[in-house]
Write a structure and sequence with these properties.
Layout (H helix, E strand, L loop, with lengths): L4 H10 L17 H7 L4 E4 L2 H5 L1 H5 L6 E4 L1 H7 L2 H4 L9 H17 L2 E5 L6 H6 L2 E5 L3 H20 L15
């Protein structure tokens, strides 16, 4: 998680599969490191109010490929979980302003915009805003979503049976 220009410069300078590039021999471990570094994507997670404050400097660093917006952590860092009732913080003016600042800096520096979403409900909204790297969940989210689908189908199938199956209440799905 980046907060400043110094952190972004260190990430770019020291990116390497094995060691920071300055620590390798002239051939870069027989030429592998330099080749790997040319083919390594540098993606920063934009998750703090300080990162947004410094986003113009951070994304101006040569070698930054993706700025990946983490709305949950950014909302926490900005104090929006205390200010709004969930999930209203995701459509707040403050988060929208921070997102717009990120978008302007990314476009100005040729950096790809990325975002993590739970599911596909808001994919079109963010794709239209220029976010082209969109993650639509993680392993737990996908497992719970699929499990919920199967449980609902099981309840549906057994509805007309003499002893219908009913799940116990849970907040999981």
């Amino acid at each position: 998680m980046l907060r400043s220009l110094v952190g972004s410069e260190m990430c770019i300078r020291d990116r390497s599969v094995y060691f920071p590039q300055p620590s390798t021999n002239a051939a870069g471990l027989l030429g592998y490191v330099s080749s790997a570094n040319r083919n390594t994507i540098v993606a920063f997670q934009v998750e703090t109010a300080d990162c947004i404050k410094n986003i113009d400097e951070i994304l101006a660093v040569k070698g930054v490929d993706i700025a990946f917006l983490g709305q949950n952590d950014l909302c926490m860092s900005m104090g929006l979980y205390e200010k709004y009732v969930f999930p209203e913080m995701y459509t707040s003016t403050e988060l929208s302003d921070a997102t717009n600042k990120l978008k302007v800096a990314a476009v100005a520096n040729g950096v790809v915009l990325g975002i993590f979403l739970f599911g596909t409900d808001r994919v079109a909204e963010f794709q239209q805003q220029g976010f082209n790297f969109i993650s639509i969940g993680n392993d737990l989210h996908h497992a719970l979503t699929q499990a919920g689908t199967h449980v609902r189908k099981l309840e549906e199938i057994t509805t007309n049976l003499a002893a219908p199956w009913k799940r116990q209440d849970t907040a999981m799905f």
